[in-house]
Every structure is written in C-alpha cells, then in structure tokens.
Amino acid sequence: MREDLVIRRERPDDAAPTLQLHDMAFGVPEGRRESLECELVRGLRADGSVIDELTFVAELEGEVVGHVVCSRATVGEAPSVGLGPIAVLPGHQQQGIGAALLMSVVASAERLAEPAIVLLGDPAYYGFFGFVPASRRGIGSPGPWDDQHFQALTLRAWRPELAGPFRYAPAFARL
To answer: Are 26 and 20 in contact (CB under 8 A)?
Structure first.
C-alpha cells in the first residue's frame, strides 16, 4: 500500500468525484447514463440512508481514487450495516486501496458497536477479511444470490439472537 494514501470520511464536496469514480470503476451499461452503482449511491444519499461515520474516500495527492459507502440496514429487527458499493479507480486497483477502505469500515463499525457488516461480493476477496456466508450466522438473504456471495462479518456487538432476515436500505430495492 502506498505511503501517501489518505483514508478519510466522505465530505459533501466528494459527491461529484465519487459518483464519477463509480462510473469509471464499474462502467456505464449501454443505454444508461450512469452505472447502477452510481444510481445506488445517489439513492442512498437522497434517502438519508448513508452512515456517515462508515463512508470513506481514499485520496492520493488530493485526488479521490477510492470510495466505500455503508448504509443502514437491518437483520431481523436490529440495526445492521450494508456495505457497498466499494470502488477504486481502474488505474489504482490491486494496490491495497480497497483493502484500506474495507479495514477502515470494520475498525469504525467496531468502535460504533455495530453488530454486523453485510455485503454481496467475491467470497475469495472478502473471506480474507473474515467475511463468511451470511447464512452461517443465521442471516437470511434478501435476494436470489448464491449463498457464498451474500456475506457477513459479525463484530463484537453481535449476539446470535440478532439473527434473522436481512434488509438493505430502500435504495437497493429500487435498482
């Protein structure tokens, strides 16, 4: 990881560069004006679902090169964290920037006594950070995804009685 990498909380003036970053990282599908991830970030922001304390940007020499958004979700009736989207500019991938963003989320979520972080992603990548199929923790998937891709990381505040169906913030359902 680069020594000049700065991970910091997202600020209001990061809105435009982070949206552009998601479009560049994920690509804009033909016939659309923006990526699904960009649409999701806009929706989460508009709904007030973003957890400010768990949403970070990565900067190199003053340029935003990475971004992770966390939003309020639920497991059963308990609050939980939905992680994603997370993106790094294509020219800066494979340099530990995504890992630094993810570790910032995990450390901050522990400090805030969040019980779990849930995401949909690559099990080989996220497994390295301790994520496991959410079903192993009794967390039910809200979608038809492969069990291995719907993952959770339970934190110190987790208690087995918190298990139940997972619900993302409303913006996810509108995609």
So the answer is: no
Q: How far apart are CA 146 and CA 113, in angstroms?
A: 29
From CA 108, how far away is CA 103, in angstroms rounded? 8
For residues 66 and 95, the answer to whether their CB atoms sit within 8 Å is no
> What crossing angle do the helices spanning 15-26 and 36-47 adopt, rounded to 10°?
150
**pTM, entire model:** 0.95
Distance in angstroms (rounded) separating the CA atoms of residues 18 and 175: 19
pLDDT digits (tens, 9 = 90+) for 26-48: 999 999 999 999 999 999 999 99
- Cβ atoms of 106 and 115 closer than 8 Å: no
Separation of alpha carbons 81 and 71, rounded Å:
6
